[in-house]
């Protein structure tokens, strides 16, 4: 998060990947998005919300 200023907002689209995000044997792209979602969820420097609209949108704000 070094490039995101404190209070900055990051919007990430397509985080649900048409439901493939729940695959237990994901392809490379799905595994990358799963890893990104997990990193955001476990990062104490940010607040985030995942919206279930369309194919998923995550909003991340650096604290």
Could you give a quick summary of the protein structure above?
By secondary structure, the protein is of the alpha+beta class. 24% of the residues lie in helices and 27% in strands.
Explain how this protein is built.
It is a single chain. This protein has 63 residues and is an alpha+beta fold. 24% of the residues lie in helices and 27% in strands. It has one domain. Strands 1-3-2 form a three-stranded antiparallel sheet, with no helix packed on it. Strand 2 (46-51) and strand 3 form a beta hairpin. The mean pLDDT is 95.
Which helices and strands occur, and which strands form pairs?
Layout: E1 9-13, H1 28-42, E2 46-51, E3 57-62
Antiparallel strand pairs: 1-3, 2-3
SSE ordering: EHEE
Structural class from helices and strands? alpha+beta
Nearest-integer average pLDDT: 95
What's the β-strand tally?
A: 3
Main sheet overview: 3 strands, antiparallel
Shape: globular
The strands making up the biggest β-sheet line up spatially as 1-3-2
Percentage of β-strand residues:
25-35%
Count the helices. How many? Answer: 1
Helical content stands at 10-25%
Question: What is the rounded distance between the termini?
Answer: 11 Å
Computed CA radius of gyration, to the nearest angstrom: 12 Å
Estimate nothing, just give the exact number of structural domains.
1
* Low confidence ranges: none
Q: What keywords describe this structure?
A:
63 residues; alpha+beta; 3-stranded antiparallel β-sheet; 24% helix; globular
């Amino acid at each position: 998060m070094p490039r995101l200023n404190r209070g900055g907002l990051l919007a990430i689209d397509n985080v649900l990947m048409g439901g493939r995000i729940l695959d237990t044997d994901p392809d490379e792209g799905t595994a990358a998005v799963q890893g990104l979602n997990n990193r955001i969820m476990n990062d104490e420097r940010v607040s985030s919300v995942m919206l279930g609209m369309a194919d998923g949108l995550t909003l991340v704000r650096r604290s």
